[in-house]
């Protein structure tokens, strides 16, 4: 469950950059947003792998 909370924290931390990019057209914020989204994707993949491993152990 800790990893899920990590995802929530990451989403809330990138919200400001998302607003700056989409509402103000700030290109630097867009770059930070893209990097954060890649980090989020990688974290999500780690969670997927962890869930799969736990399911295998239970079976």
Search tags:
mainly alpha, 59 residues, single chain
Detail the topology: elements first, then pairings.
Layout: H1 2-24, H2 27-58
Q: Helical region count?
A: 2
Radius of gyration: 15 Å
- Averaging pLDDT over every residue, what do you get? 94
Oligomer: single chain
Unreliable segments (pLDDT under 50, ≥5 consecutive)?
none
Q: What share of the residues lie within helices?
A: over 70%
Describe the main β-sheet briefly: none
Integer count of domains: 1
Beta strands, count = 0
The fraction of residues in strands falls at under 5%
CA distance, first residue to last residue:
20 Å
The structural class is mainly alpha
**Helix and strand run:** HH
Description:
This protein is mainly α and about 60 residues long. The chain has one domain. It has two helices and no strands. Helix 1 runs antiparallel to helix 2. The longest helix is centred in the C-terminal third of the chain and has 32 residues, at about 25-59. It is elongated, with a radius of gyration of 15 Å. The two termini are about 20 Å apart. The mean pLDDT is about 95.
Short description:
The chain has helices at 2-24, 27-58.
């Amino acid at each position: 469950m800790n990893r899920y909370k990590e995802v929530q924290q990451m989403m809330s931390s990138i919200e400001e950059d998302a607003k700056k990019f989409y509402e103000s057209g700030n290109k630097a914020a867009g770059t930070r947003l893209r990097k954060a989204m890649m980090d989020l994707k990688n974290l999500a993949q780690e969670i997927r792998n962890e869930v799969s491993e736990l399911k295998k152990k239970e079976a």
